[in-house]
Each structure stands twice: as structure tokens, then as C-alpha cells.
């Protein structure tokens, strides 16, 4: 019997209906040959697509590029890498493995925000879509003594949902708080297999979000600043090797000695740089626009001035990125 969603994890508010998913899975292509279940994942039905998506691949790419450039501040590396990775993956009709991205940086630098943009780009309802699945380590995997249970649940959840939608998206937040070993349960799904137990995972996307490596990213950014070089001069090759090794050797990264790194199954380690004063001001203006308010530069400056910055001597980078901008703006 094909193990649909055995021991499923609970939904995290994306409107998942377990019974509906099971009905979908039973009705959408399961075939039995000589007693063996073989599942061909269907294409996802995401409803009417926005005009920019109907415009074709170039239109989708342009829309994603524009949204990242207009809404993500101070992250030239993340913008470039995510755009190229997603575009290349979606243009490939026969990928050899799922796309796996690991996003690293301090809180408030844009990791969660980017994952929302990516989710909306891939499925019109974004995080509310039944095809986008968000896991939060402290919520879904809290107990160290239950690692084996979490591994079994995670495999069942991913297997069942990729069976229902080949291009499912799985987002793992707070990877730095995930108990070591939990994430290795999904290793077979990320590898270069055509099928695992009759299901192909090659069109799925996995995104990891982590604060781990934030110190390494900041050190390199600070070295560039102290050398009088622009942050835009920082290239992926300056950070990616340091990140992958640092996260692999960090017991608090969720990827400590992980087979995902050891087997080179993570396609990109994407650094999110610490945000400067000017970027915080950009965040304040963006929040004002989102609220339909006129841009008041006095308020922009006051909100930015209320933030704390580090290192103590130079005060270059915001301690919390743009994370508290919304709440601080409420006071003005």
C-alpha cells in the first residue's frame, strides 16, 4: 500500500485540508502494476495566473527580478543568485534533482521576506497555497528526544505532498534551531534519483532559512568596508565556501555534519549581508508606501536613528536589520 501522508505534520496555516489532499492523491494518477504502487505526480493546479506569468518565461523572470530589486534592500548577492537559480531551474524541463537553496544571515536581513516572494512567484497563493509548506523548527520539531519520529513524519509529509504536486515548495525556517539529524531524513528526496519509491522529486524546491553563518558573513562584509571597498564588490565566491564549511562544522546550524552538505545536495548557499543605516531607511520608506502613507523623511530618519548598530566603534550594521521597522513606525 502506498504510504500516503502517514504520520503527517500539522499544517502551519496555509489552509491545508488533509482529507482534501488525500482525495486529490487518490484521484490523481496512482497506478498499480503487479501489486506495486507507482505514482506519477501531476502538475499543480494553482488557479488563474497573473498577467505577468501568462506572458511566458521571460515575463515571469522579469516580474521576479523587478520585485526583488524593488523590495529587497542591500542584498545584491541574494537577488542575483535567487533569480538565476529559479529561472534556470524552471526553464529546465528535465532537472536531475530538486532545487535546494540555503539562505543565511542575521535576523531582519530579508530571508523570510524572500521566501515569501519566491513562494508567490511559484504558486499564486504563496504561503497560503496547498503546494507551499512552511516548517518552523521550534514549532514542528521542538523535542530532541523525538528526532526519529520527526524524521518519519517529515518523510511521510513530503512524499504525500510531492505525490499530489510535483512542483511543491518546502520552506524550513529556523534551521539554526533544528536538532542535528532531523533534516537528513529528506536526503533521499534531494539526491540525483529519478524516482524514490515510485515518486519523482526532481521538480520540487526546498528552501532552508538560517541565522547560522551570520557572523562569518558579517566578518567578510566588515573586512570589505574597512578596506574601503564597496559592499557590491562582494561576490558569491567570497562567501559561499566559507558558509558551507562553517555551517557543516557548526553544531547549532541544523546542518552539522549533514549528509546534505557532505553529498553536495545543497545547490546554493546564499548569504544575506548585514544591513546599513541607508538600508534601514529604505525599509521605512517601503513600509510607509505599503501603508499608503506619504513619505515623510523626518519620520524616516527618526525611525532609523532609533535602531541600534554594531560594531560599537563604527556602528555600521543594524542589530536587527529591518525586523522592528513596522512596530517602530507605529509610534510615529
From TrEMBL:
Signal peptide: none
Catalytic reactions of this protein: ATP + H2O = ADP + phosphate + H(+)
UniProt keyword list: ATP-binding, Endoplasmic reticulum, Glycoprotein, Hydrolase, Membrane, Nucleotide-binding, Nucleus, Signal
GO annotations of cellular component type: endoplasmic reticulum lumen; nuclear envelope
Sequence ranges assigned to domain Torsin-1A C-terminal in this UniProt record: 275-331
Residues that, per the record, bind ATP: 105-112
Superkingdom: Eukaryota
Compartment list: Endomembrane system; Endoplasmic reticulum lumen; Nucleus
InterPro entries associated with the record: P-loop_NTPase, TOR1A_C, Torsin, Torsin_1/2
Gene Ontology molecular function, alphabetical: ATP binding; ATP hydrolysis activity; identical protein binding; kinesin binding
Main location as per UniProt: membrane
Swiss-Prot/TrEMBL GO biological process terms: endoplasmic reticulum organization; nuclear membrane organization; protein localization to nucleus
Similarity comment: Belongs to the ClpA/ClpB family. Torsin subfamily.
Name of the protein: Torsin
Source organism (scientific name): Ursus maritimus
Amino acid at each position: 500500500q502506498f504510504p500516503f501522508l502517514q504520520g503527517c505534520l500539522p499544517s502551519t496555516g496555509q489552509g491545508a485540508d488533509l482529507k482534501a489532499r488525500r482525495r486529490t492523491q487518490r484521484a490523481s494518477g496512482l497506478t498499480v502494476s503487479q501489486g506495486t504502487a507507482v505514482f506519477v505526480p501531476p502538475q499543480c493546479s494553482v488557479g488563474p495566473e497573473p498577467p505577468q506569468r501568462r506572458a511566458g518565461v521571460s515575463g515571469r523572470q522579469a516580474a521576479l527580478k523587478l520585485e526583488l530589486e524593488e523590495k529587497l534592500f542591500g542584498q545584491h548577492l541574494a537577488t542575483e543568485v535567487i533569480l538565476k537559480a529559479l529561472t534556470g531551474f524552471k526553464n529546465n524541463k528535465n532537472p536531475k534533482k530538486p532545487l535546494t537553496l540555503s539562505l543565511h544571515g542575521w535576523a531582519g536581513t530579508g530571508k523570510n521576506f524572500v521566501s515569501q516572494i519566491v513562494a508567490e512567484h511559484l504558486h499564486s497563493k504563496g504561503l497560503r497555497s496547498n503546494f507551499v509548506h512552511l516548517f518552523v523548527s521550534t514549532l514542528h520539531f521542538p523535542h530532541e528526544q523525538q528526532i526519529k519520529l520527526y524524521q518519519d513524519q517529515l518523510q511521510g509529509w513530503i512524499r504525500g505532498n510531492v505525490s499530489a504536486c510535483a512542483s511543491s515548495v518546502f520552506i524550513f525556517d529556523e534551521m539554526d534551531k533544528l536538532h542535528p539529524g532531523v533534516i537528513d531524513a529528506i536526503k533521499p528526496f534531494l539526491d540525483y534519483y529519478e524516482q524514490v519509491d515510485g515518486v519523482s522529486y526532481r521538480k520540487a524546491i526546498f528552501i532552508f532559512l538560517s541565522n547560522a553563518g551570520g557572523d562569518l558573513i558579517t566578518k567578510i562584509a566588515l573586512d570589505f568596508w574597512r578596506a574601503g571597498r564597496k559592499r557590491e564588490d562582494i561576490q558569491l565566491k567570497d562567501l559561499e565556501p566559507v558558509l558551507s564549511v562553517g555551517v557543516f562544522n557548526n553544531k547549532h546550524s541544523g546542518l552539522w555534519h549533514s549528509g546534505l552538505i557532505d553529498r553536495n545536495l545543497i545547490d546554493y548557499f546564499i548569504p544575506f549581508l548585514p544591513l546599513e543605516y541607508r538600508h534601514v531607511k529604505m525599509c521605512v520608506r517601503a513600509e510607509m508606501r505599503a501603508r499608503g502613507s506619504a513619505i515623510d523623511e523626518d519620520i524616516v530618519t527618526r525611525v532609523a536613528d532609533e535602531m541600534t548598530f554594531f560594531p560599537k566603534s563604527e556602528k555600521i550594521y543594524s542589530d536587527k536589520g529591518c525586523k522592528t521597522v513596522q512596530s517602530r513606525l507605529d509610534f510615529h
